[in-house]
Amino acid sequence: MIEQVRSRFGDAKDLVSEVMDNGYARLELCFFPAMCDVDQIKDAILVPFSYRFDPDEFRRMLKTGLTFLKSDEPKKWPELLLKGCVLLQYEDKVYSFLAIRKMQKAPGDTEVEASLQGPQSAFTEDLDMNMNLVRLRYNSPNLNAELMEKGEISRTRIMILFDREKVDRTSLDELRKRLESIKPQLIQASGQLAMYIGNARFSMFPITLQTERPDRVAQLLQRGKIAVLVDGSRFAITLPVRFFDFMHAMDDDYEPFWMGRIIILFRYLGMVLSMTLPALYIAACSYNPEFFRVQLAFSIDGSRAAVPYPSFVEVFIMLFMIEALIEASIRLPRFVGSTAATVGGLILGQAAQQAGLVSSIMIIVTSVVAISNFVIPNSSFSYSIRALKYVFVLVATFYGMVGIIVTLFLIVVYLCHLRSFGQPYLAVNMQKDQQKREQSR
Amino acid sequence: MYRYFYYHVFYIGMMNVMLFVPHILIKHRFDGAVSGILAGIVIGTVLTVGTVYCYRQFPELGLPEILKRYFPDWIVAALLYLSCLLWLAGGVLGSYTFAQTMGLFFNPDMNHYQFLLLIIVSSVFAGSRSTRTIQFANEILFWLCMPLLLFILFKAFSSPYLSWDAIRIVAGYVAGPPSLTLLAASTFFYTGYLNLTLFNRLYPAKFRIKRLWSIPLLGAFLGFVSFFIPIGLHGTMGVEQYIYLWSVTADSMSLKYGFIQRILFIFLIMFTLLSLMFMMNVFHACMEYIKASHPRHKPQPEQLPVPKTNWIVCSFFGAACFLFSLWANEGRSQWATELWLIVRFLFELGSFVLIIVLALLEKRRSSPSSRSTTSSASSGQ
Question: Quick check: A294 and B261 CB within 8 A?
């Protein structure tokens, strides 16, 4: 066995292959020490084989042990070794022993979707740990789990979870069809998989929701959605989703009803502001100052007195600054991050306006845009809103106020046009309609 | 489900403002407009309720599918092209007036065609979506428009300059018989029911449009509001000076607080949305008619991705809008709109008769079979 394995791996130096002899019997052993838990190997194989050796007991252990599997097909050996198994040959029979080294022993902390009073545990980068987290919260025999492997090279394990009784069958079929049709090389993050199965590379909005919160996954499962867990990723993909799901934070369910509603209302307001405010500024400066109250129009125009170029140039400068600042604070290491924020804040805050590069109202607009954008609970959705802002700016540059309204109309139509795995993306009262339809049949 | 039906009735009823209906009514405010509106309530309600009842015979079928059951292909195609032409004309007229209004009140310096381009591009995009998408979009847009409308109405009714005397005086001229033009104009408030010809495909079997009693109320409300509020604000004589009557009327109200001072802009925002909604539906309906005129076409209310034919057909509609605007000016478009309203009215009457006949035929055709199934069921027991 050892020669076969060695030749397949091209004499990899990190592969350990030993022939052990305790005086009574021979044992051939090979494994990757980097991928295996050496303590486990010692306890399960080495101790019984060496100074507690009893041929009958050892044979019985190999035959009945839960973690020992007989694997006679030489073709599967490399695969098993790469997953973190130990291959051992005893009395001309080959067994595999699962001794995967686990990095995660405890659930992670929420980092992207923080919550004040909700559960603080998040998914980890280990699929089994994540399964544990979901099963704990969704403690029902109806929870179906299907295991899959995707990625020619990475061979990432993927788990599809759904509630057998509540799941929407058409979406499930659609998901399976799409998972079969894709042939990626590497799958490293759930976002990547979401993009492959999303089937809409040029879609402006995410049609799957990624979350790191087990409680959200449980809630969505209970509503008949499907969750896809990817090994090595902290995020679960859930689908099908609707527009409103992206604006929903888990805290809304843990707070009293009306507080939650009011916060949601503010969130929508923030979203609209973040999308349209720069465009409205352009419209107010360059096209329709009469649209607003006279005093407001005057103060906008007055603050622009020192600015030497048209409003859209100003907007582009400031939006570029703020985007750069956001990007910098995400990518930079924590220690340097605060420097970037301070420097950026200084420039954006005062200097740019005093130098006459931008108007003071534009600074307010920029900060409102940035802050409102962070109000959106889902990061991929807030990316969409960030990008859509430029569509508005572009149209407002050419058409002013009318352009903004027409773009708003187009976005509504576009959202209604989108489907998330066969389910409408933006539609109200769908559930009621469905019930009525079923009643009438 | 039935709420979707009312969204259509609502936005088409609201579109009267863009299609010079108040202008036509006000021109004849002393000779027949009031009686025209009253007659419109009766005619519109009969047409709407009758059509709704007839379509109950054809669950999940649109007009093209119904016609295909009874007529040879070429007659079906001819009828569909005719109704497509009629609706398209409405859309073209609407787009022209809309572009004019926006140009006049929003960006007077801008080239008229540039505006038209924006409108046409967005209508082509929106119209080429699938039927279900259009249905969803109608609902969302309706809820976007509704608060604005309520606000404008609130401002209008609470305005100190609204002269109820003027309204009362005009309302007194109830005696004169309405002309055909007036009838055509005043029945326009109800035309929304015609969406059933297409959107009936989406309604499931055994589906009932409830609360039909609200049709006369809704139509009468729209009619009286768009006729009497301008009179109340401009006076009985001053009101006839304006072509874009409602824009001017909205401009005569103002906001004391808030970012926006002139109600006109709230009005324009609302009408931008409503007009685009109208264009979207018109383009979509026309496109579906044209696609259905092919004998082997199968209706697909849900279609993703959007097929290329949709884009091509809708682009032709867009080109038609553009060509019209080359020919038209204010006078011509007004004349054409008036003509269109009358033709539309006659067409509606014609199609009403047709659908009644078809529904009766369908009933006769289906009743013997249903009787036989019930008898066999009872004998089986």
Answer: yes
